[in-house]
Specification:
Helix content: 40-55%
Shape: globular
Low-confidence stretches: none
CATH architecture of the largest domain: 3-Layer(aba) Sandwich
Strand order of the largest sheet: 8-7-9-10-11
Radius of gyration: 21 Å
CATH class of the largest domain: Alpha Beta
Mean pLDDT: 95
Strand content: 5-15%
CATH superfamily of the largest domain: Glycogen Phosphorylase B
Number of strands: 11
Number of helices: 13
Order of helices and strands: HEEHEHEHHEEEHEHEHEHEHHHH
Largest sheet: 5 strands, parallel
């Protein structure tokens, strides 16, 4: 998402943005890599009005040394930090406790998927995809596969609350559908994003996260490509979709892992239906979640940051300060998830 954000800022706003990665790791697009252009990146940081850190970087991080973010803040640079993962994962990588992470006093953003409920002080901003780019457009040819599924981790569905997509269970389910019902399945993991997008375009149906209650970027990519997209969405995720889209309805097929086999079999047997659902997915994203509109949330956050960093805070209508709000956004979904795990652990789905 960081590189998509920088590209969108340059494409749709008057903001001049650059992205600095430590190294080129090859799965996604890159702008600058510190291992290749340290002097240029230091110069850009010195000239910047705003420095936007992601996930594991804070004011004391020295990964980009000799860049010193605390010194840059003291010189008047505005610093904002964006979270894409759980506090537990971010803190583990940083070598601190989740409590220490959440206590850090840096203006912060959190994506409008599962992470936002875990960072109650953070301003909520949406993830998005560049739907106008060719790889995100619907493919006009005949699909090669009925179902596409990609995952980055092999965690069990009930092993980790938010860092899993239930890959072992989903892959077993898809193998059974291939064997017993003749579905054509394509899976991908560890491939560069452009290859994954090309494979996804050739599929009728895209599987997102059927376990946790949140969707991911793979689901937005599927919507942009005009696919029927399955994702299990809890009430908090649905509320955030309504909040940032302005629409009462959404295009995801809200399906749990437990119920997915029959749904997938029905969709695979009805190509006309999947085409209709996919066309509706694309229309919804173009109308309610286009890149040009979603990136304005970031531009607005930057304006607030420049005016007064204290203004970059949780939107009142999304507040999680009361016990009831916290229960509905975090505790209730966790209780439901624990009940599902107790019912299904050790059983074939």
């Amino acid at each position: 998402m960081p590189v998509r954000l920088v590209q969108a800022l340059n494409r749709w706003t008057g903001i001049d943005a650059r992205l600095a990665d430590l190294n080129r790791f090859g799965l996604y697009d890159h702008d600058l890599a510190f291992s290749e252009s340290p002097d240029q990146i230091q110069q850009l940081a010195a000239q910047a009005d705003i420095i936007h850190l992601h996930n594991y970087l804070d004011l004391d991080s020295r990964a980009f040394a000799p860049l010193n973010f605390r010194e840059l803040a003291a010189q008047g640079k505005r610093i904002v930090r964006q979270f894409h993962s759980t506090p537990q994962l971010v803190a583990q990588v940083m070598g601190i406790t989740p409590e220490a992470l959440l206590a850090q006093d840096i203006p912060c953003l959190a994506i409008a998927q599962y992470p936002e409920r875990l960072y109650p002080r953070a301003m909520v901003v949406p993830n998005f995809v560049p739907e106008t780019m060719p790889l995100y457009a619907p493919d006009q040819g005949e699909p090669l596969w009925d179902v596409f599924y990609s995952h980055t981790k092999d965690l069990d569905a009930w092993e980790d609350r938010w860092s899993t997509k239930g890959a072992p269970q989903v892959l077993a389910m898809l193998a059974r559908l291939e064997r017993e019902r003749g579905l054509r399945v394509r899976t991908a993991t560890g491939l560069p994003l452009d290859q994954v997008l090309a494979l996804k375009r050739k599929s009728r149906v895209v599987l997102d996260d059927l376990v946790t209650g949140s969707y991911h970027l793979t689901g937005l990519e599927g919507l942009a490509q005009g696919k029927a997209v399955l994702a299990r969405l809890d009430e908090r995720s649905l509320a955030l979709l309504r909040r940032f889209s302005g629409a009462d309805a959404h295009p995801f097929l809200n399906v749990r892992l437990e119920d997915a086999p029959e749904v997938l079999a029905a969709l695979a047997a009805d190509p006309d239906l999947t085409r209709e659902l996919g066309a509706a997915s694309r229309r919804w994203l173009e109308e309610h979640w286009p890149e040009r509109r979603m990136v304005e949330h970031y531009a607005a956050a930057y304006d607030l940051l420049l005016e007064d960093p204290a203004l970059v805070r949780r939107q009142p209508e999304l507040a999680l300060s009361g016990r009831a709000d916290s229960f509905l956004a975090r505790d209730l979904p966790d209780l439901i998830q624990a009940a599902r795990a107790a019912r299904w652990r050790g059983h074939d789905i």
